[in-house]
Amino acid sequence: MKIVIYNNQRDLLISLSEIKKLVSLVLKRLKATCDEVILHFVTKKKIGEIHKIYFNDPTPTDCISFPIDSPSSKIKGYKVLGEVFVCPKVAIEYSRTHQIDCREELGRYIIHGLLHLMGYDDLEESQQKKMRQMENRLLLDFSHWREPLSRDIGP
Known about the structure:
Layout: E1 2-7, H1 16-29, E2 36-41, H2 44-55, E3 63-67, E4 80-86, H3 88-98, H4 102-117, H5 125-141
Parallel strand pairs: 1-2, 2-4
Antiparallel strand pairs: 3-4
Helix pairs in contact: 1-4, 3-4, 4-5
């Protein structure tokens, strides 16, 4: 599977290889069948712009997902699961105010976005609970995420 990562922010040094490992392991665990998934790491300004355009809300958010080819789709040929936009600055700020590990929070955002691409939703409280449990399980399973984020710095 091709994991495409665009790093268009400078708030946090990210390890492209660790993120690819996390994405690959999460999608294997979720039994995703696709050929490609795309992640964008963006600034607060950019995520706010995307949030305004697609959700009529100009405030910055943690992550936004855009499914492309449904995981349950029977289409043949090259299948793109979708795109996830993640804002590391939001993770930094949230982790500071809640005294948690920034890398874990960033990992949670990535997993959350991937879960949306796989069809999970969080509009209702029961869905939020189910999604949070899955995030926690995946974060625990992939505790290697706590590796330093300063290796393989992307552009």
